[in-house]
Amino acid sequence: MSLTGRESIEAGQVALEEFSRTADAAQIAECADELLAVTRFLADQPRLRRALSDPARDASDRQGLARTLIGGHIGSGAASVVAELVKGRWGSAGELLNGVESLAISGLLEAGSAEGNLAEIEDQLFRFKQVVDGDNELSGTLGSSGPGAEGRAYLVGKLLDGKANPVTVKLAAAAAYGIGGRSFLAALEHLVEAAAAKREERVAYVTVARPLSEEDERKLAAKLTLLYGMPVGVKLTVDPSIVGGIRVQVGSDLYDGTVERRLTEARLTLAGR
To answer: What dihedral do alpha carbons 264, 265, 271, 273 form, nearest 10°?
Structure first.
Protein backbone atom coordinates (compact mmCIF):
# COMPACT_ATOMS: atom_id res chain seq x y z
CA MET A 1 0.00 0.00 0.00
CA SER A 2 1.17 3.53 -0.79
CA LEU A 3 2.37 5.90 1.92
CA THR A 4 -0.65 8.16 1.35
CA GLY A 5 -2.94 5.14 1.65
CA ARG A 6 -1.41 4.16 5.00
CA GLU A 7 -1.77 7.73 6.24
CA SER A 8 -5.44 7.75 5.21
CA ILE A 9 -6.07 4.50 7.09
CA GLU A 10 -4.40 5.97 10.17
CA ALA A 11 -6.77 8.96 9.98
CA GLY A 12 -9.73 6.58 9.68
CA GLN A 13 -8.42 4.60 12.64
CA VAL A 14 -8.39 7.78 14.73
CA ALA A 15 -12.05 8.38 13.83
CA LEU A 16 -12.90 4.78 14.77
CA GLU A 17 -11.09 5.10 18.11
CA GLU A 18 -12.89 8.36 18.88
CA PHE A 19 -16.24 6.66 18.31
CA SER A 20 -15.20 3.59 20.33
CA ARG A 21 -14.24 5.65 23.39
CA THR A 22 -17.88 6.52 24.07
CA ALA A 23 -19.49 3.35 22.69
CA ASP A 24 -20.09 -0.06 24.24
CA ALA A 25 -19.05 -3.37 22.68
CA ALA A 26 -22.38 -3.89 20.90
CA GLN A 27 -22.26 -0.41 19.35
CA ILE A 28 -18.67 -0.92 18.21
CA ALA A 29 -19.59 -4.28 16.65
CA GLU A 30 -22.53 -2.66 14.86
CA CYS A 31 -20.24 0.05 13.50
CA ALA A 32 -17.83 -2.63 12.25
CA ASP A 33 -20.71 -4.55 10.63
CA GLU A 34 -21.71 -1.40 8.79
CA LEU A 35 -18.15 -0.85 7.59
CA LEU A 36 -18.13 -4.42 6.27
CA ALA A 37 -21.38 -3.68 4.45
CA VAL A 38 -19.77 -0.57 2.93
CA THR A 39 -16.85 -2.75 1.84
CA ARG A 40 -19.19 -5.15 0.03
CA PHE A 41 -21.08 -2.24 -1.53
CA LEU A 42 -17.90 -0.58 -2.82
CA ALA A 43 -16.61 -3.91 -4.12
CA ASP A 44 -19.65 -4.02 -6.42
CA GLN A 45 -19.36 -0.36 -7.44
CA PRO A 46 -16.04 0.23 -9.24
CA ARG A 47 -17.09 3.62 -10.63
CA LEU A 48 -18.02 4.85 -7.17
CA ARG A 49 -14.73 3.57 -5.75
CA ARG A 50 -12.84 5.53 -8.36
CA ALA A 51 -14.90 8.66 -7.70
CA LEU A 52 -14.36 8.45 -3.93
CA SER A 53 -10.60 8.02 -4.33
CA ASP A 54 -10.07 10.40 -7.27
CA PRO A 55 -7.34 12.90 -6.27
CA ALA A 56 -8.64 15.30 -8.92
CA ARG A 57 -11.84 15.74 -6.92
CA ASP A 58 -11.89 18.08 -3.96
CA ALA A 59 -11.96 16.27 -0.59
CA SER A 60 -15.22 17.97 0.39
CA ASP A 61 -16.75 16.82 -2.90
CA ARG A 62 -15.74 13.21 -2.19
CA GLN A 63 -17.16 13.45 1.32
CA GLY A 64 -20.42 14.90 0.00
CA LEU A 65 -20.73 12.03 -2.47
CA ALA A 66 -20.13 9.51 0.31
CA ARG A 67 -22.73 11.17 2.55
CA THR A 68 -25.30 11.13 -0.26
CA LEU A 69 -24.80 7.54 -1.40
CA ILE A 70 -23.60 5.81 1.78
CA GLY A 71 -24.04 7.99 4.88
CA GLY A 72 -27.82 7.70 5.07
CA HIS A 73 -27.65 3.90 5.29
CA ILE A 74 -25.19 3.58 8.19
CA GLY A 75 -24.85 4.92 11.73
CA SER A 76 -22.94 8.00 12.77
CA GLY A 77 -19.85 6.06 13.87
CA ALA A 78 -19.36 4.24 10.57
CA ALA A 79 -20.29 7.40 8.63
CA SER A 80 -17.56 9.38 10.40
CA VAL A 81 -14.98 6.70 9.57
CA VAL A 82 -16.03 6.59 5.91
CA ALA A 83 -15.96 10.39 5.70
CA GLU A 84 -12.42 10.46 7.07
CA LEU A 85 -11.31 7.75 4.67
CA VAL A 86 -12.67 9.38 1.52
CA LYS A 87 -11.13 12.68 2.59
CA GLY A 88 -7.72 11.05 2.44
CA ARG A 89 -5.51 10.34 -0.55
CA TRP A 90 -5.07 6.88 -2.04
CA GLY A 91 -2.72 5.28 -4.51
CA SER A 92 -5.64 3.50 -6.16
CA ALA A 93 -9.37 2.82 -5.78
CA GLY A 94 -8.46 -0.66 -4.55
CA GLU A 95 -6.54 0.86 -1.65
CA LEU A 96 -9.67 2.67 -0.50
CA LEU A 97 -11.61 -0.60 -0.56
CA ASN A 98 -8.91 -2.33 1.48
CA GLY A 99 -8.84 0.62 3.87
CA VAL A 100 -12.55 0.37 4.66
CA GLU A 101 -12.22 -3.40 5.11
CA SER A 102 -9.20 -3.12 7.40
CA LEU A 103 -11.02 -0.67 9.68
CA ALA A 104 -14.06 -2.95 9.75
CA ILE A 105 -11.78 -5.74 10.99
CA SER A 106 -10.18 -3.33 13.46
CA GLY A 107 -13.65 -2.46 14.76
CA LEU A 108 -14.59 -6.10 15.29
CA LEU A 109 -11.36 -6.71 17.19
CA GLU A 110 -12.06 -3.61 19.29
CA ALA A 111 -15.53 -4.98 20.08
CA GLY A 112 -13.98 -8.26 21.18
CA SER A 113 -11.46 -6.38 23.30
CA ALA A 114 -14.21 -4.29 24.91
CA GLU A 115 -15.94 -7.52 25.95
CA GLY A 116 -12.68 -9.00 27.28
CA ASN A 117 -12.90 -11.90 24.81
CA LEU A 118 -10.00 -11.19 22.48
CA ALA A 119 -7.83 -14.14 23.61
CA GLU A 120 -10.78 -16.49 23.15
CA ILE A 121 -11.50 -15.07 19.69
CA GLU A 122 -7.86 -15.49 18.67
CA ASP A 123 -7.86 -19.12 19.78
CA GLN A 124 -11.19 -19.88 18.09
CA LEU A 125 -9.96 -18.45 14.78
CA PHE A 126 -6.82 -20.58 14.97
CA ARG A 127 -8.72 -23.74 15.82
CA PHE A 128 -11.20 -23.12 13.00
CA LYS A 129 -8.26 -22.70 10.60
CA GLN A 130 -6.93 -26.07 11.77
CA VAL A 131 -10.33 -27.71 11.19
CA VAL A 132 -10.63 -26.29 7.67
CA ASP A 133 -7.01 -27.07 6.81
CA GLY A 134 -7.50 -30.69 7.90
CA ASP A 135 -10.61 -31.26 5.76
CA ASN A 136 -9.82 -31.36 2.05
CA GLU A 137 -13.42 -30.94 0.93
CA LEU A 138 -14.12 -28.04 3.28
CA SER A 139 -10.78 -26.43 2.49
CA GLY A 140 -11.50 -26.68 -1.22
CA THR A 141 -14.95 -25.16 -0.83
CA LEU A 142 -13.94 -22.25 1.39
CA GLY A 143 -10.62 -21.75 -0.36
CA SER A 144 -12.12 -21.17 -3.78
CA SER A 145 -11.89 -17.65 -5.18
CA GLY A 146 -14.11 -15.53 -7.39
CA PRO A 147 -17.93 -15.53 -7.37
CA GLY A 148 -19.74 -17.17 -4.50
CA ALA A 149 -18.09 -15.37 -1.58
CA GLU A 150 -21.49 -14.63 -0.04
CA GLY A 151 -22.33 -18.33 -0.06
CA ARG A 152 -18.97 -19.21 1.45
CA ALA A 153 -19.48 -16.63 4.19
CA TYR A 154 -22.94 -18.10 4.88
CA LEU A 155 -21.40 -21.58 5.19
CA VAL A 156 -18.80 -20.28 7.65
CA GLY A 157 -21.59 -18.72 9.71
CA LYS A 158 -23.54 -21.99 9.77
CA LEU A 159 -20.46 -23.97 10.81
CA LEU A 160 -19.61 -21.64 13.69
CA ASP A 161 -23.05 -20.49 14.81
CA GLY A 162 -23.53 -21.30 18.48
CA LYS A 163 -20.02 -22.75 18.71
CA ALA A 164 -17.91 -19.58 18.76
CA ASN A 165 -18.00 -16.01 19.97
CA PRO A 166 -20.20 -13.85 17.68
CA VAL A 167 -17.18 -11.69 16.84
CA THR A 168 -15.27 -14.82 15.81
CA VAL A 169 -18.13 -15.74 13.49
CA LYS A 170 -18.15 -12.28 11.89
CA LEU A 171 -14.37 -12.29 11.41
CA ALA A 172 -14.29 -15.78 9.93
CA ALA A 173 -17.17 -14.91 7.59
CA ALA A 174 -15.23 -11.81 6.48
CA ALA A 175 -12.27 -14.09 5.68
CA ALA A 176 -14.48 -15.90 3.15
CA TYR A 177 -14.37 -12.73 1.03
CA GLY A 178 -10.56 -12.78 1.07
CA ILE A 179 -9.33 -10.01 3.37
CA GLY A 180 -6.95 -7.82 1.41
CA GLY A 181 -7.01 -10.32 -1.45
CA ARG A 182 -5.78 -13.19 0.72
CA SER A 183 -6.89 -16.81 0.44
CA PHE A 184 -9.34 -18.03 3.10
CA LEU A 185 -6.71 -19.79 5.22
CA ALA A 186 -4.27 -16.90 4.85
CA ALA A 187 -7.03 -14.48 5.88
CA LEU A 188 -7.73 -16.54 9.00
CA GLU A 189 -4.03 -16.53 9.87
CA HIS A 190 -3.94 -12.77 9.34
CA LEU A 191 -6.87 -12.41 11.75
CA VAL A 192 -5.19 -14.60 14.38
CA GLU A 193 -2.11 -12.40 14.23
CA ALA A 194 -4.17 -9.19 14.22
CA ALA A 195 -5.98 -10.34 17.36
CA ALA A 196 -2.64 -11.15 19.00
CA ALA A 197 -1.22 -7.76 17.98
CA LYS A 198 -4.28 -6.08 19.50
CA ARG A 199 -3.28 -7.78 22.77
CA GLU A 200 0.34 -6.68 22.19
CA GLU A 201 1.52 -10.24 21.56
CA ARG A 202 3.15 -12.17 18.75
CA VAL A 203 2.12 -15.60 17.51
CA ALA A 204 4.38 -18.65 17.28
CA TYR A 205 3.10 -21.45 15.06
CA VAL A 206 4.59 -24.59 16.54
CA THR A 207 4.48 -28.00 14.84
CA VAL A 208 5.38 -31.16 16.75
CA ALA A 209 4.99 -34.89 16.11
CA ARG A 210 3.33 -35.48 19.48
CA PRO A 211 1.42 -33.14 21.82
CA LEU A 212 3.48 -31.08 24.24
CA SER A 213 2.70 -31.12 27.93
CA GLU A 214 1.29 -27.92 29.39
CA GLU A 215 4.57 -27.39 31.22
CA ASP A 216 6.64 -27.79 28.03
CA GLU A 217 4.32 -25.43 26.17
CA ARG A 218 4.72 -22.82 28.93
CA LYS A 219 8.51 -23.18 28.85
CA LEU A 220 8.56 -22.76 25.07
CA ALA A 221 6.37 -19.66 25.27
CA ALA A 222 8.67 -18.22 27.97
CA LYS A 223 11.79 -18.81 25.83
CA LEU A 224 10.18 -17.20 22.79
CA THR A 225 8.99 -14.27 24.90
CA LEU A 226 12.54 -13.73 26.11
CA LEU A 227 13.88 -14.03 22.55
CA TYR A 228 11.45 -11.52 21.04
CA GLY A 229 11.20 -9.15 23.99
CA MET A 230 7.41 -9.30 24.10
CA PRO A 231 4.74 -11.89 24.97
CA VAL A 232 4.53 -14.72 22.44
CA GLY A 233 1.50 -17.02 22.29
CA VAL A 234 2.02 -20.59 21.11
CA LYS A 235 -0.37 -22.06 18.51
CA LEU A 236 0.28 -25.78 18.48
CA THR A 237 -0.24 -28.20 15.59
CA VAL A 238 0.42 -31.93 15.93
CA ASP A 239 1.73 -33.48 12.70
CA PRO A 240 3.13 -37.04 12.99
CA SER A 241 4.67 -36.75 9.50
CA ILE A 242 7.51 -34.60 10.86
CA VAL A 243 8.60 -37.75 12.79
CA GLY A 244 10.15 -35.85 15.71
CA GLY A 245 11.67 -32.56 16.77
CA ILE A 246 9.92 -29.21 16.49
CA ARG A 247 9.21 -26.49 13.93
CA VAL A 248 8.56 -22.92 15.10
CA GLN A 249 7.51 -20.01 12.92
CA VAL A 250 7.18 -16.46 14.23
CA GLY A 251 6.42 -14.01 11.46
CA SER A 252 9.06 -14.60 8.77
CA ASP A 253 11.41 -16.36 11.23
CA LEU A 254 11.48 -20.14 10.86
CA TYR A 255 13.26 -22.50 13.25
CA ASP A 256 13.07 -26.02 11.85
CA GLY A 257 14.58 -28.72 14.03
CA THR A 258 12.37 -31.55 12.82
CA VAL A 259 13.54 -35.06 11.97
CA GLU A 260 11.71 -34.62 8.66
CA ARG A 261 13.97 -31.70 7.74
CA ARG A 262 17.12 -33.60 8.72
CA LEU A 263 16.05 -36.63 6.66
CA THR A 264 15.31 -34.38 3.68
CA GLU A 265 18.75 -32.77 3.96
CA ALA A 266 20.37 -36.21 4.19
CA ARG A 267 18.55 -37.40 1.04
CA LEU A 268 19.63 -34.27 -0.84
CA THR A 269 23.24 -34.74 0.29
CA LEU A 270 23.26 -38.39 -0.85
CA ALA A 271 21.64 -37.51 -4.14
CA GLY A 272 24.37 -34.94 -4.79
CA ARG A 273 27.18 -37.47 -4.44
So the answer is: -160
Are residues 41 and 97 both part of a single domain? yes
Tally of CB atoms within 10 A around 118 = 21
C-beta of residue 180 within 8 angstroms of C-beta of residue 136: no
What pLDDT is stored for residue 9 in this prediction?
96
Are 187 and 230 found together in one domain?
no
Count CA atoms closer than 13 A to 64's CA, side-chain side. Answer: 5
Residue where one domain finishes, among candidates 116, 132, 149: 116
Span 156-210, pLDDT tens digits: 999 999 999 999 999 999 999 999 999 999 999 999 999 999 999 999 999 999 9
Q: Beta strand 202-208 with 232-238: parallel, antiparallel or unpaired?
A: parallel
Beta bridge partners of residue 136, listed in sequence order: none
196-247: pLDDT as tens digits: 999 999 999 999 999 999 999 999 999 999 999 999 999 999 999 988 889 9
Residue 41: CA count within 13 A, CB half-sphere: 16
Whether residues 8 and 85 share a domain: the answer is yes
Alpha-carbon distances, residue 147 vs 59, 94, 156 (angstroms): 33, 18, 16
Same domain, 59 and 83: yes
| Closest listed residue to residue 164, CA positions, set 125, 134, 192 | 125
SS3 label, residue 22? coil
